[in-house]
Amino acid sequence: MSQAIFHYHVTQQLSRCAASRAAACAALSQLSAGSSFMGHAAATKIIHTSAPQGAAVPAAAYKLDDPRLPLPRFIPEGEKHRPLPSPLRDALQFIKDGAMKRRFRETVDLRLVLGTDPKRGDHAVRGTAILPHGTGTTVRVAVFADPEDAAAAKEAGADVIVDEKLIDHIAAKGSGVIDFDKLVATKSVQSQLSKIARILGPRGLMPNAKVGTLTDDVAAAVRSLKAGRIEFRADRSAVLNTGIGKIDFSVEALEENALALVSAVLAARPKVLKGTNAKYMRRAGVSCTMGPGFPIDVTSLVAPRKAKD
Predict the structure, then answer these.
(1) What pTM, to 2 d.p., does this model score?
(2) Are 255 and 92 in contact (CB under 8 A)?
(3) Rounded to an integer, what distance in angstroms lies between the CA atom of residue 272 and that of residue 257?
(4) Which of 112, 109, 158 is CA-nearest to residue 136?
(5) Within its chain, how far is the Cα of 199 from the centroid?
(6) Half-sphere exposure at residue 94, Cβ-oriented, CA atoms within 13 angstroms
(7) CA torsion, points 117, 118, 122, 127, in degrees to nearest 10?
(8) Do 44 and 77 meet the contact criterion of CB atoms below 8 Å apart?
(9) SS3 of residue 6 by DSSP
């Protein structure tokens, strides 16, 4: 650490020191004179201790592990051991074994780092996947369609039927009155949603044909959403983070959900992207809401799809 950086750290912490400013400045002047102390290679982390009042002891009189060392004191930082990538089933077992009892059901997330260029429009990765065991949450589905299609959607399990009165109510009150998680609409009435497009858009509720929420078969869309269909989309860093279930799911259920999501992501691979699937899906990891993450061996995700093909 250079002397300029050393002085910077000390001056930044002078006001927080428990000792007086005069004592801290005296300790600083004494430490600056000790070149052997300043050039110690093991000094990688700085912590701050209270200097004694009137401390004026040469730096050579102290050792690195002496707790009486005036502000600041250098402590060698130990090596950080990160877990190695493991198969999907083992990583899921680690998540379940390390989970603590919470007052809520934690969500298990699968994180995929893709080898795409987010700046290119033809590298966009977006689609839907049907999780065999569902997401573990109750999804409220709203439908905006003609009376005949709305009645069919109601029989399929739709929770809310949107009409013009509800649209005007949302436009007047804002997003606080929205009590549904997904919105399905037909193409014939899509133009009527323009009044609340600015409200639905930021919440991801605007019907879209690419994800199956803008369709003429609203009953089938409602059944698929109720069965566990999810949407995924890579962000600006080419990272895709999606929930695959709850922590109380079995390892087998979480594994099947994860493989279903991976299969959909591989199917949504951009056509202009060259290379193998291992280059398309560079890294992967799994974590829960309030727990640590574990890296996954990408080959354990790609291999099951090759076996099916």
Answers:
(1) 0.66
(2) yes
(3) 28
(4) 109
(5) 24
(6) 18
(7) 120
(8) yes
(9) helix
Q: What are phi and psi of 305, to 5 degrees?
A: -70, -40
3 state DSSP class of 238: coil
Query: Is the Cα dihedral 51, 52, 53, 57 positive or negative?
Result: negative
Structure-token pair, residue 227: 């069965």
**C-alpha–C-alpha distance, residues 170 and 173, integer Å:** 5
pLDDT digits (tens, 9 = 90+) for 130-187: 999 988 888 899 999 998 999 999 999 999 999 889 999 999 998 888 999 999 999 9
pLDDT tens column, 204-215: 899 988 888 999
Give bridge partners of residue 286 from the DSSP assignment: 110, 294
Q: What is the pLDDT of residue 84?
A: 84
DSSP reduced 3-state for 77:
coil
Written as six digits, the tokens of 73 are: 């004191």
What span, in angstroms and rounded, lies between the C-alpha atoms of 218 and 295?
Answer: 39
